[in-house]
Amino acid sequence: MSWHFAYFLPYGSLSANLQQREKRAVWHPYSALGSDLPVYPVRSARGVRLQLENGRELIDGMASWWCVIHGYNHPVLNAAIESQLGDMAHVMFGGLTHEPAVSLAERLVELTPDGLEAVFFTDSGSVAVEAAMKMAIQYWIARGQPGKRRFLSPRNGYHGDTLHAMSVCDPVTGMHGLFRDVLPQQVFIGRPEPGFGQAAQSHHLQELEQALDQHADELAALILEPVVQGAGGMRFYSADYLKAARELCDRHGVLLIADEIATGFGRTGRLFACEHAGISPDIMTVGKALTGGYMTLGATLTTQTVAGTISEGNPGVFMHGPTFMANPLACAVANASIELLLDSPWQERIEAIGKGLRAGLAPCRSLSHVAEVRVLGAIGVVELTAPVDMQRVQPMFVDRGVWVRPFGRLVYLMPPFIMQPNDLATLTAGVVEVVSSLTENDGVCAPD
Ligand SMILES: *Cc1c(COP(=O)(O)O)cnc(C)c1O
């Protein structure tokens, strides 16, 4: 579409047309077809700003669900894709390989916790989790213990939307009731406690220890999100719990899977959240910010022990292989994104964002319908006492020029790392205004 054409259209008519067309045919995440919930057509995005088709600009508080750490339309990342495009956009990974994949695998091995030395590329986060779970199952089959095929998982977790990944998500928010007869039955324990920065007491670890005692002979692995539970509740928990989980898994002969898809690449203030506890998992998943939000790509990393056992056992191969595995464009932009991150003062940036979030969101603390305000790394969460009514709340954020996408009782921010203090202040002020107005306009908060 040319600039002139857009100029002569009355504002909003193009987007209205798009909205009508897509209502008939396009399904959005966790939504009904033809839903009346607002969706906003985006024309372009640059830096920390989304530009809507109607010309309105929004400061992005979501980094497109944890991904866009360097901001949109970054010249270095654009160049990495363009350069790779000149060589090849894609090539199958069965029997063929390429430089971007090998470099990325080497880089991930170097940067992730010690002991993770083998990399399996996937085409999304959920598939990285599927691969991790299958690795754990195949490891025990190769060890002659095929009965170890269930998973232990804390409540409030989120690991993706495919069926096996769903089976280890929080049973309530993961709608296990709806899928009862379809999902594999896993073993659940309470959410990890205590909160981040607090010392774990023995009673915090009791349920984990009991579950491992009771179920070790049927458990392939414990799967959890290290330190930050994302979409299952946006909670931050003690690194002591993670440290204890490592020790207890070792003692009970159960593998530990750390899902770093949300936390990886600096978001919590460490490159990987496992570093808060100084532990290495047996299997680790990454995704989301891996490509700086440019392409869909995931990876499952594991140890020589797990990879070697699977490769030497029966059937001697790891039974997985996505069509778009290690897509060259995605690997090339991931390499560029990681380099960009490591060459930037990312720790200082995240610390500054954390400070800005703490200061900016603080006024929410005194509101009676706010249960808690918490900040870790570049993540800020305002937890309300009741779920927000998205139909009313979403336009309130857009009217204030910010893109914030609450879910349930959670209004949260995880901005791109490049966000400047003035934009961050606009973002947090938008959250404070909208959340404050929820008390004034009775009924915006629907009952829980
Ligand atoms: C987003 C997410 C996933 C799923 O990744 P997709 O790319 O959406 O399939 C899995 N685990 C965690 C912790 C996530 O945040």
Structural description of this entry:
- With 448 residues, the chain is α/β, with parallel strands linked by helices.
- It folds into two domains: 16-73 and 345-447, Aspartate Aminotransferase, domain 1 (Alpha-Beta Complex); 76-342, Aspartate Aminotransferase, domain 2 (3-Layer(aba) Sandwich), CATH 3.40.640.10.
- 38% of the residues lie in helices and 16% in strands.
- The protein is built from 14 helices and 16 strands.
- The strands form four sheets. The chain has a seven-stranded mixed sheet, with helices on both faces. Strands 1-2-3-15 form a four-stranded mixed sheet.
- A hairpin with a 2-residue loop joins strand 13 (370-376) and strand 14.
- The longest helix is centred in the C-terminal third of the chain and has 20 residues, at 421-440.
- It is globular.
- The termini are far apart.
- Mean pLDDT is 94; it is low at 1-11.
- Residues 124-126, 129, 158-160, 225, 230-231, 259, 261-262, 287-288 line the site of pyridoxal-5'-phosphate.
